[in-house]
Write a structure and sequence with these properties.
201 residues; alpha+beta; Rossmann fold; 2 domains; two-stranded antiparallel ribbon; 9 helices; 50% helix
């Protein structure tokens, strides 16, 4: 969490690892990655192993101060604990809350996306007028989810900002090339995604 906070990560980057998640973008058809020991700290797992007579394997790279994560553990966290006892536990709880909030946010974005989608010859498009009336942060979230669902995946932040500028109310029709042959095309009413097979000459 501290690492990603220093990097300026989005809320998702500050959230804790989830106990389980799909390995792929298709939650219904993907196997689950399960982390049953997330609720235990390192001291807890060591104590359990010793009480059960289980061998403990220590990763020697965890002592190498060339890695930023190890310097945080060895130099930053002890200072925070000395200043604010229990800081690590509170940060862990905050990361869990952020993970829950992110999950709630994603569900609400998915519901909102359904109200913007319009049937089209190449799959569902987005109602440009209704999209444009939303705050830019909501437009970003909806477009990124839509692109993840439809196939090409999320846009880079700079590309997304360019697209939002092109979709502003006073802007006319246009197109944008994406990776792997995908394209976006929009008229005055609808934003459409054009698959590679159709986009290629």
């Amino acid at each position: 969490m501290l690492f990603n906070l220093a990097r300026g990560s989005h809320r998702r980057g500050l959230a804790s690892l989830r106990p389980s998640r799909p390995l792929h973008n298709d939650p219904g058809g993907s196997p689950q990655l399960v982390r049953p020991l997330l609720s235990f700290c390192r001291d807890d797992t060591a104590r359990i192993c010793h009480s059960r007579g289980l061998p403990v394997w220590l990763d020697s790279s965890n002592d190498d101060r060339r890695y930023g994560r190890n310097r945080l553990r060895a130099e930053v966290l002890p200072v925070l604990e000395a200043l604010y006892p229990g800081a690590q536990r509170r940060m862990s709880l905050q990361a869990e809350r952020l993970a829950q909030e992110d999950e709630q946010h994603q569900q609400l974005v998915a519901l909102a996306l359904g109200s913007l989608e319009q049937p089209g010859p190449m799959g569902p498009g987005l109602d440009r007028h209704r999209l444009g009336r939303l705050a830019e942060a909501n437009q970003r979230a909806l477009i990124q989810l839509w692109l993840r669902q439809q196939g090409p995946g999320e846009l880079a932040a700079t590309t997304l900002e360019i697209l939002l500028g092109c979709l502003a109310p006073k802007q006319g029709p246009g197109q944008m090339n994406l990776a792997s042959g995908w394209r976006l095309g929009w008229d005055r009413s609808t934003l459409n995604l054009i698959p590679p097979a159709i986009a290629s000459p």
